[in-house]
Write a structure and sequence with these properties.
alpha/beta; four-stranded parallel beta sheet
Amino acid sequence: YVYRNIAPKLAKNGFRVVIPDLIGFGYSSKPSSKKIITYANHTKWLTTFISKLELNGINLFAHDWGAMISLRIVADKLELFSKVAISYGYLFEGSEVIPDSFKGFKEYAKTDSTFLAGNIMDWGSNTKLPDSVKSTYNLPFKNSIDYFSIRKFPSLIPTNSLDEAAIINQSLNKKLYKFNKPFITIWGNHKDFMWVGKDSILQSNILGAKNQKHFVLESNHFIQEDQPEELTSILLNFFN
């Protein structure tokens, strides 16, 4: 649903557009056990999805957790991807400074009753989302079990360099930095200290990001809501 103002225009311009819901999001299956909701499993599930559909020559746009999972796959399967555009994605190695604002959000996500998909999208957008849009974001989540994945995601970011997920990311970043095909970053200008400067690190370290035009838009975290037309234009120009 977050790509409702973007996907049709990409398709109209001749692209095959594939948008998987991450497991536990949208109308995908909702895990009934919190134990299986792990960074590693999400990576495995999305990798299997790509394999089952036999996708290759992929022009990737990935945002937030879609990006943090996809970057692992790009690093591990460089040959499958033709071009990569990333928004608010990064392979955290556990040594980064995590701001108090994110620590608070992580605790809030665990139990607070106002943690609803529509509220999160609204808070992360400069655009004031209509109640009808927020309600549509909320529709797939009927009960507390349905929220297991969305509540757990903030806690999956490794915050210690000895965490298993951090060690995996440390290894995969070395591979990711060798990606030498076109790679761009698309960030908003909202000063979220969890994300400030992460785009610059990607630009400096990834071979394919050098000498590319990168973007900072007039936007909060959810660029898809704040700047769908500009984002679509950037992707069309880049993928073409």
